[in-house]
Amino acid sequence: VEHDAHLSQITIAGQGGTHLDVAKYRLQHRFGVEVEYDRPKISYRETVQGRARASYRHKKQTGGAGQFADISLMVEPFNGPFNPPDDMKQRGEHTMETDWGAKIHFVDAIVGGVIDMQRFFGAIQKGVADALKEGPVAGYPVGDVRIVIYDGGMHSVDSNENAFKTAAKFAFRQAFREAHPAVLEPIAELEVLVPEAYMGEVLGDLNTRRARIQGMEADGVFQKIRADVPEAELYRYSTALRSMTQGRGLHHTKFARYEAMPRHVQEKLIAENAALEEA
Length: 279
Known about the structure:
279 residues, Alpha-Beta Plaits
């Protein structure tokens, strides 16, 4: 049993549908806990595959002291050292790790003191961190991006941390949408042991699950198949494998990495999420 706070779900693993039904029965009749099973949510991520810039000015006047913050930033993938464009020069940096295990790299490239980074760098990071929790593309957590703050403006009276927090949040979301965003999906390493007589059917089924076969070899009286498969495509795989092999197939999975999903799959996922929000 696992609890995932980010997905707001509790996952119960079992050896098959019957095993899960027994667990549900015991929870209801022995402990008085009503349980409803649903398809597990997948821990998708959002990131960018390109570089883009955006500016945002937050200005608010309500009688007394107002709020003012002007910020320009650039978003790009965080996959190595920062190679600044010709019009930027790195002056400072900070790397943070999110609750979901992603890394975010902040770069201070402000010149001439147009933003007091000693005073507002923390607020800018907090504003971006707020936006990271629900990505602009499909609402999934954002990871492995670099944010470069390179220009902006402030007011001697009206600029404060809240103003820069708000400006950073909206500037980040705008730049993210322009930086070729992508949805990442978790990829599992799958090993399947099956009698040779069932190899054709099992391989055909894996092809329908967007699997990439990594190798096949003999393992005693069985054949071993190694494949990389999107986690989303492995729903109820144990039941399917048991049916295809008359209960003689075995499999094991473990998380491997995140990869950008194919464009047509991403568009379908975004459309499904939009339909759920409208429902």
